[in-house]
Write a structure and sequence with these properties.
Helix content is 25%, strand content 36%. With 177 residues, it is α+β, with helices and mostly antiparallel strands.
Length: 177
């Protein structure tokens, strides 16, 4: 289970290459192939959720352009899966950056509607760490299943909208990379 997904951005932070596994990952997550093809030449930030996440990526990309190679863990969950991955960011060509993502493991879980992008949402917000996928409950980041229970999300007429940030633990890991 050592699959790799690879894409690169140019000096303007626009996606200028992605491989077949990148396209397959998009397809497996409900993105039509013609829409994945449309990712080319779009800013990488347009695919990141939350201003804090975008800013951290800007900082990381600047470190890579200064000659550093960064590696850090993150998750990319689906409603019925936990996906544990490791990302490596490294220089690529003149001012470009390569993103290489390796799948570490996948865990099945009972479907969590909060992670289903097709579910109708309220204006209420819950914050999720963009790296570990834990959710803030009373100023503490907790696993999604626990957050759903503690926030009594299924007792509400509509689920809240998920917004993204970064927890202190992941911030330390990512910025230390």
């Amino acid at each position: 289970m050592n699959e790799l997904v690879h894409y690169t951005i140019d000096h303007d932070d626009r996606i200028n290459f992605f491989d077949q596994p990148f396209q397959e990952f998009g397809s497996e997550n409900g993105v039509p192939p013609d829409q994945v093809a449309g990712y080319m030449e779009k800013p990488v930030y347009s695919f990141l959720a939350g201003s804090q996440t975008k800013e951290i990526y800007r900082v990381l990309i600047a470190k890579v352009r200064a000659g550093r190679k960064l590696t850090f863990p993150f998750r990319c969950d689906a409603p019925s899966l936990r996906r544990y991955l490791v990302m490596t960011m490294e220089p690529s060509g003149p001012s470009g950056v390569a993103f290489i993502t390796r799948l570490v493991r996948v865990e099945d879980r009972q479907t969590v509607s909060l992670l289903d992008s097709s579910v109708v949402r309220s204006d209420e917000l819950v914050r999720m760490c963009a790296w570990c996928k834990r959710i803030v409950v009373e100023d503490t980041y907790t696993e999604v299943e626990e957050a759903v229970q503690r926030l009594k999300l299924f007792n509400r007429p509509a689920l809240p909208t998920v917004t993204h940030g970064i927890c202190d633990t992941c911030y330390r890991k990512v910025t230390a990379a």
